[in-house]
Amino acid sequence: MSDIVLEIKNLTRRFGAFTAVDALTLSVNAGEVFGLLSSNGAGKTTTIKMLTTLLPPTSGEACVAGFSITNQAVGVRRAIGYVPQAVSVDGSLTGYENLLIFAKLYDLPRRERPARIAEALEFMNLTADGGRMVGEYSGGMVRRLEIAQATLHRPKVLFLDEPTVGLDPIARDAVWKHLVDLRANYGTTLFFTTHYLEEAETHCDRMAIMHKGKVAALGSCKELEASLGSGHTLNDVFVHYAGSALDSGNNFRAVSAERATAERLG
Amino acid sequence: MNATSIRPLTGFIEKTFVITEFELRKLRHDFTELVTRALQPALWLLIFGQVFSRSGMMHTGNIPYLDFIAPGILAQSVLFVAIFFGINVIWERDLGIVQKFLASPTPRAALVLGKGFSAGIRTLSQGVIVYILSLLLGVKLNWSPLALFNVLIIVVLAATLFSTFSLIIACIVKTRERFMGVGQVLTMPLFFASNAIYPTDIMPGWLKVISHLNPLTYVVDALRTCMLAGSTSVFGLSLDYVVILFTTTILVFLGARLYPRLAT
Hints:
The structure holds 2 protein chains of 2 kinds.
Chain A: E1 4-15, E2 18-29, E3 33-37, H1 44-51, E4 59-64, E5 67-68, H2 73-79, E6 80-83, H3 95-105, H4 113-123, H5 139-151, E7 157-161, H6 169-186, E8 189-194, H7 197-203, E9 206-211, E10 214-219, H8 221-226, H9 234-242, H10 252-265
Parallel strand pairs in A: 3-8, 3-9, 6-7, 7-8
Antiparallel strand pairs in A: 1-2, 1-4, 4-5, 9-10
Helix pairs in contact in A: 3-4, 3-5, 4-5, 5-6
Chain B: H1 2-29, H2 32-37, H3 39-55, H4 65-82, H5 86-94, H6 97-102, H7 108-136, H8 145-173, H9 176-192, H10 205-213, H11 215-227, H12 237-258
């Protein structure tokens, strides 16, 4: 039994009369790759925002790396890395500068900074591009830089909101290759949301399918498929637990945000 | 004991300057905006200033009208640039940059104040332009190092004050369209209800009261005192500083409370 690095208990968030996340309870082990699957509007992003302390929960609690999100927010922030769905590096700076600013914000000692930044760039296969303006990067390079930026301080848990949205299949594979390496080398726990089922199938140790703010199913891909009897695919599992195929339920804001991200990365 | 009690403060100052550095590094890569910004004060001083100076309608005591408005135009150009600063914050929100900064352990007030300082340093270029034009127009400037240093500090503080005000508006309205609307509505009243281009003595009573509540009035008074040779302060330079610093502190505190709303 490995250590639990993320423990969520009855986490709830309401927006007016609408309950975006409804008594969410689950735990994630250290070093695990955990995927949160749902169609848009089912509470994935709200969940990530609460776990990264960007949004206070209405009720319930979660502990990230031993720190409570409700009253130890700064401890949580030191222990995590976060790659939002939208582009989070600055296009009017070089890759190196983007990393330098975050090295300073996370208190990496001055003497260690150059080596850590060089290592992060190399790890994400961006060494040759560190001095270029990020505005000239391809979409895949931007995502890799964002991951480098979010992991400079070696977080225990890395939260990624739709990390491969808007990327072509080759860039998507490259991003995942680096994420898998990150776990192998530093033991980083990966908690990510996606609505690409094949991505969840290939990379997740375990996943949760969310439907209307609740966990509808939880387990490894094989366990979930077996839960419906033999011969079922993850797609069948999704339709069974989430009540519909993946693409339904998108609202205007989600669609336009996603397209804008795709456009910036593309 | 001392080391631990001092650390949060040094950490806060350090983080504030990291944020300022982040903003200024962007400027280093593209400084065209510094050039385009110089145009507005030039128009006000060369056209508006010249015309009203000839009209002889403004009674500005023992200093010529052009001298009178030079500091006013500097304050005005700082205000006009700073008041639209919030649009950048909304842009950063539409990207994921605000979210990433807020998910880092950086104190919220350092995020807000660091951005404010960067706006302050950006507006220094306008100070240079106003000084050059004033020199060409024969304005009697005070060149003592202490006076110049005061002008520099006042410009940075004023830009910090109004850009933080702008950031607060951005946190409340959240969209670019609404922000532009509110920005337009606020700029002119702040400008006209101040002593920037006419003395408060000639204002009707109600406007005079408003102008005394307007921080821009104290910025202009402080600039006028320090920039011009032989000009005396209406309120006293220390009262000007107290009002500017106090307002900035309140706004940074408010901004730090509201800034996380951008990530939700």
